[in-house]
Each structure stands twice: as structure tokens, then as C-alpha cells.
Write a structure and sequence with these properties.
Yope Regulator, Chain: A, 6 strands, alpha+beta
């Protein structure tokens, strides 16, 4: 009888992706009360949200379209529906954790939004 393969928790997958990004100067901090990846300048580009990973992919990019097409993916709305979702951010559910590194790298490679 084959042993049942243990699946990683969302937090374990988040930490695994963070470790994969560490050589780029990425570190983990808190945003919206949740663990987040930040670049060397302290800009957040992805964070845990529920059991998913929310990534800043930018509207109109191939990665944004690809992420939103995944079953269960949705625009990131940290307000819980009280406001409109954050522009360009997508929550990729844990069922697609095998794609988290891909989307986190895409978010890391996007320049931070400039605030006027």
C-alpha cells in the first residue's frame, strides 16, 4: 500500500516560495496583518490572504490574465467587499500553489506603483 503524500499547508508553501526568492533580496514582513513578500526597498508585491497568495500582477499583463483564469482566483479585496478590489492584484488559491513562485516572480519584476 502506497503511503499517502502529505500536502503542504498554505503557510508552508508561502515560506517555500519566500525561500526561493530570498536570493533576490526578498524578505517577509507583515501587510494587512498577513505575511507578505517585500523587495529590498520595502515595497510589498505579494501577501497571504486566507489560504491564497495575493500578487501585484498589474492589469493587462499576461500574468494577470493567466492568474485570473485559474479556477477560484479572484481580484484581491482586503476590505471583504466593503470597497472595490485593489487594482492589479489577484488572489491565487492554495490549490494552485505550484504556480505561486511563477506569479510571485512576475509581481517582483513589476516596478512599484508611484504614489503622487
Amino acid at each position: 500500500m502506497a503511503a499517502k503524500q502529505k500536502t503542504a499547508s498554505p503557510q508552508e508553501d508561502f515560506e517555500r516560495v519566500g525561500a526561493d526568492l530570498a536570493d533576490k533580496g526578498v524578505w517577509i514582513s507583515m501587510v494587512f496583518g498577513k505575511p507578505a513578500y517585500k523587495d529590498e526597498n520595502g515595497h510589498s508585491f505579494a501577501c497571504m490572504f486566507g489560504d491564497g497568495l495575493s500578487c501585484r500582477l498589474i492589469d493587462g499583463t499576461p500574468e494577470f490574465t493567466e492568474a485570473l483564469a485559474l479556477p477560484g482566483a479572484e481580484p484581491f479585496d482586503p476590505s471583504g467587499g466593503r470597497r472595490k478590489p485593489m487594482s492589479g492584484w489577484v488572489v491565487v488559491p492554495h490549490q494552485h500553489a505550484d504556480k505561486w513562485l511563477h506569479f510571485a516572480q512576475a509581481a517582483f519584476n513589476r516596478p512599484p506603483r508611484k504614489v503622487d
